Amino acid sequence: MRCRVSSFRTKLWRYFALLAVLILGLLWLFQTILLQSSYERMVKRNVQRIASSLVEHANQDDFESWLNTTAADNSLLIFVTDEQGQILYATDEHSNVYAVQVSDTSDGNGNPYRQNQEQSWQRGQAHYLSLPSGYEDFLMRLRSSADGTVAYTSGTAFIYGFRMTVNGTEAVTYISTTLAAVGSTVKIIRIQLLWVTVISLAMAFGMAWVLARRFSAPVSRISDEARRLAEGQFDATGTKGFSTELDALSDSLTQAARDITEARKYQRDFLANISHDLRTPLTMIKGYAEMVRDISWRDEEKREKDLDVIIREVDRLTALVNDIIDYSGMESGRSEISMACFDISRMAEEVAGRFIPLCEQEGYMFNRHITPELKAIGDEAQLARVVYNLLDNAITHAGADKTVLLTVCENNNHIRVEMEDHGEGIPEDVLPYVWDRYFKTAQSRRNKKGSGLGLAISREIVQRHQGTYGVNSSGNGSVFWFEIPVANV
Fold first, then answer.
1. CA 152, CA 159: separation in Å to the nearest integer?
2. DSSP of 61-102, one letter per residue?
3. Which end of the chain is more exposed for a tag (fewer CB within 10 A), N or C?
4. In 292-416, which residue ranges form alpha helices assigned H by DSSP?
5. What is the H or E stretch that residue 421 is in?
6. What is the DSSP string of 330-355?
7. 3-state DSSP call for residue 415?
8. pLDDT tens digit string along 120-134?
């Protein structure tokens, strides 16, 4: 497939590549640019959390060991002093290494800031740490604090202080930690990220191209099949196996090809049949019109017979055209139905009454078994047309005994209408097609009666009434029937 800017493959590759760039961009943003600020916020929250824990441990026996461990684990410098800055306790991350244990402070070798009257928890450790520079400023800030706490940044150090009570002694706690430790780490991360970015982008672009080709290939094949279908090549065989969605699309395309092929076959058959049926009455109309003009125009009796033939063929042609228009309107949905409650028993009697004179004249035996006062919901005029079409079909194929039976009854909360004839019947292999448009059995073609759309129109009307229909046939005749729901009144 030729690579186009707007093609599915190119767009998919661009989206994958853009996703890779966005991920690496976010990685650079958080690991370099935002790392320092994130680190500082984390350190400050950690110092405040430790300060709260320090208050909780201040009056416990393991205060000293806990303080040493906390300072070592969190890289902190901690001083506990009085208001004048005399060190009561000091520790940092190296306190476990440099701490000097002494047995007593009374001989003057202990902490010079401690007094002889200090508490027992204050004795036992000589401090190797001196007060940090700016401690006097720290005390001044703390004294002026309204809530007894202070937090500020001095150079690259974050300083946090607060007052607390240790075994009844008022003390000042100073906690300091550096904020610059992450600086060297950032430099290392940047160098590593540069290499990671170059390698990742190369891999991401290559992987995006492979995935784009992989995903676009079945889509391209289906697109080609759709194009061939549009060009009239109906041999589409769908590409399957990549994904269920594309498999479903491929199946739909294959089914569409079959449906279009079948529709074109029906169209050709329909045009051939309708052309034949139109040609016959038109030929007769023209022939008899010429006879009237050239021969029988002087003979009144002969002229009337010829004109009767012309009128009869015009009526036949009109009925054929009307059937075509009606069926086309039903298939396209332009034909509307007017739903109302009506007496289908009375309607069937009225439709049957139209055939009684013909049956009496031609010697037909027309039997009727109609259950009275059956109510249905539907378009009475259209359902009357269904009954008329089926009765006309039954009379046309009545057979040698010329017997026709119309039955209207209730069946499982439905109204069933049956038309039975004793004709030749319908071969089993063509039964599924008798309701199709312009389908005619061999006998129908010999009779040369009807447009071939009567049963198709009847089927459309019954379906639009949410009804069912069917035909049962044997060598002794056929039974055409339909059912619609009974009206609950």
1. 5
2. TTHHHHHHHHHHHHT-EEEEE-TT--EEEEE-TTHHHH-EE-
3. C
4. 300-332, 344-362, 380-396
5. strand 414-421
6. HHHT-S----EEEEHHHHHHHHHHHH
7. strand
8. 333 334 455 788 888
Of 62, 102, 78, the residue nearest 112 (C-alpha): 102
Half-sphere exposure at residue 49, Cβ-oriented, CA atoms within 13 angstroms: 8
Q: How many C-beta atoms surround the C-beta of residue 198 within 10 A?
A: 11
SS3 content of the chain, % helix, strand, coil (to 5): 55, 20, 25
Distances (CA, A) of 147 to 91, 151, 159: 25, 11, 16
Closest C-alpha among 321, 479, 305, 482 to residue 403: 479
Nearest residue to 385 (alpha-carbon basis) of 329, 432, 304, 427: 329
Nearest to 386 by CA among 478, 472, 481, 315: 481
**Is the pTM above the cut of 0.85?**
no
Domains along the sequence of the chain with CATH: 1-233 (3.30.450.160), 244-331 (1.10.287.130), 336-485 (3.30.565.10)
Q: Are strands 403-411 and 365-370 parallel, antiparallel or unpaired?
A: parallel
**Amino acid found at 88:** L
Contacts by residues 151-154 (CB-CB < 8 Å, ≥ 24 positions apart): 151/44, 151/47, 151/48, 153/179
Question: Cα separation of 306 and 479, whole Å?
Answer: 38
The structure tokens listed for 256 are: 């569409």
Give the Cα separation of 453 and 319 in Å (integer): 11
- Axis crossing angle, helix 181-230 with helix 244-291, rounded to the nearest 10: 20
The packing angle between helices 344-362 and 380-396, to 10°, is: 30
Contacts of range 112-116, beta carbons closer than 8 Å, 24 or more positions apart: 113/81, 113/86, 113/87, 113/88, 114/86, 114/88
**Residue 264 — φ and ψ, nearest 5°?**
-65, -35
Residue 202's H or E segment, with its range, is helix 181-230
Determine contact, residues 197/161, Cβ cutoff 8 Å: no
- 109-148 burial: b if 16+ Cβ within 10 Å, else e: ebbebbeeebeebbbebebebebeeebeebbebbeeeeee
What's the DSSP call for residue 424? S
DSSP secondary structure letter of residue 122: G
Q: Which residues in the chain come in under a pLDDT of 70?
A: 1-9, 30-35, 96-128, 181-186, 231-243, 245-246, 266, 269-270, 272-274, 276-277, 280, 327, 330-335, 437-452, 489
- Report the amino acid identity of residue 66: W
